[in-house]
Specification:
The protein is mainly alpha-helical and about 240 residues long. It is globular. About 5% of the residues are buried.
Length: about 240
């Protein structure tokens, strides 16, 4: 069987100190040893979740002290309100943010169009002219749909509907909009054609996504279930 594959470039060099440590190691420190020490401390403070990967390994999460202050600031901003009270201004700002998010997320996928052209397409309801513009439009429609569903529980049907919106008009890698994958011939490879990741069997997708739904719909308020900060859970 010839497998469909997605290739990603090889990133050479050591671990990103900014992402891994949150602070820059001192000059002369052994980065590798510092990283292992950091991982050990984080593991010792980790909390387990009743949530498993395809190999049956339990997921863990750790909130280091450096993150606590950031969580507080985000929670404080959310509770104090960052949107204007005026309903017209609020509607305009939310619509603008949704539009910006649709464009920005598409640019991360390396779409080749300018922000102005993309914004004009969405504002004036112009029909997309190429696959890049289709992606932007789909992302925009997806953001609007999610806004309407924000208070509903996550379900398999909802996931399929969101998938249908996000991938409408695209048949890349054999995609069928709004349908679960029906084969196991997709892998992630690096520039040397080495397999970096192979997704779970297609026969397990529905079961695994149901586990995602159950996890998302559980409150995790620290009463009957473990407490997980909503921001951490969202990540």
């Amino acid at each position: 069987m010839i497998s469909k594959s997605i290739k990603i470039p090889i990133v050479k060099g050591v671990i990103s100190t900014e992402i891994s440590f949150g602070i820059e190691p001192k000059k002369g420190d052994d980065v590798q040893k510092a990283w292992w020490a950091t991982k050990f401390v984080r593991f010792s403070k980790s909390k387990p979740l009743e949530y498993y990967d395809k190999e049956g390994n339990m997921f863990l999460f750790c909130i280091p002290n450096t993150l606590q202050a950031k969580l507080y600031k985000i929670s404080h901003l959310s509770s104090s309100g960052i949107l204007p009270n005026n309903s017209i201004k609020k509607h305009y700002l939310v619509s603008s943010l949704i539009m910006e998010e649709a464009i920005s997320s598409s640019q991360l996928e390396e779409v080749s169009t300018t922000r102005k052209v993309a914004k004009d397409m969405l504002i004036y309801n112009r029909k997309p002219q190429n696959s890049d513009e289709v992606m932007i439009l789909n992302n925009y429609l997806l953001m609007r749909k999610i806004k309407r569903l924000i208070n509903e529980e996550l379900t398999l049907d909802m996931i399929l509907d969101l998938h249908r919106i996000a991938t409408f008009g695209s048949d890349e890698n054999g995609n069928i909009a709004g349908k679960f994958r029906q084969s196991d011939d997709i892998v992630i490879r690096d520039g040397n054609d080495t397999i970096l990741y192979q997704p779970p069997l297609h026969t397990l997708i529905e079961k695994r996504l149901q586990a995602v739904c159950d996890f998302a719909n559980t409150q995790h308020l620290g009463e009957e279930e473990i407490f997980i900060h909503p921001i951490i859970k969202a990540i």
